[in-house]
Task: structure prediction
Amino acid sequence: MSCIDPNTTLAELVTTQPELASGLDALGLDYCCGGQRTLAAAITEAGINPDTTIATLETTPAGPRAVEWDGMDGLVDHLEATHHAYLRDILPRLVALAEKVAGVHGQNHRELVQVAALVSDLRADLEPHLFKEERVLFPMIRELAAATTAPSFHCGSLANPIRVMAAEHDNVGDLLGQLRSCTDGYRVPDDGCASYRALYHGLAELESDTHLHVHKENNLLFPAVIDAEQTLIAEIR
Result:
């Protein structure tokens, strides 16, 4: 891996080197909602050693090649087929598993009551969010991608629903941060059963996938949509 420039933003790091996403997650460095911070600024805010952190990231092995897509409409298709489908499958199962584990182990591990509540809150936030993207925002993005002149949308500029979606991403990020904190980084205690381990493994996977999902929307899709809309508007003036 090439040397990492600490003045590069977290979003740019993950865009150019997707294998760094898991390492940044493990370090608690938010590259999705907080992706416009430089690596140096994020390290300072986290209070971790900069030399050790950068050295760790630089030794991260290259992962599989990132999935590629063609244009805004291709990215929207990718988001629905991968991240949206994953969430619709995993969220109900994690809610049920969290309730089961809290029922069995909650007396000795009181944090599991909070875990179950947070997982339920995540589902309550994410499922309507996916619906709004698929039924409202994404169809307008597909229309924009196919347009040769600026379309007229009921919401005015697409920057308006994008702003709402980004705010909802921030809420989800907060919930994921609380989950990581109350589970001690998804650390299973010595008396944890197989279901306990499956829950924490599933939550860690959910966090990783959702961070990458939000990164693709906040730092790739949304800026591209706003730029494309502004370009079409400028061409008719």
Observations:
- The chain has two domains: 10-58, 71-235.
- The mean pLDDT is 92.
- The radius of gyration is 19 Å.
- The chain is about 70% helix and 0% strand.
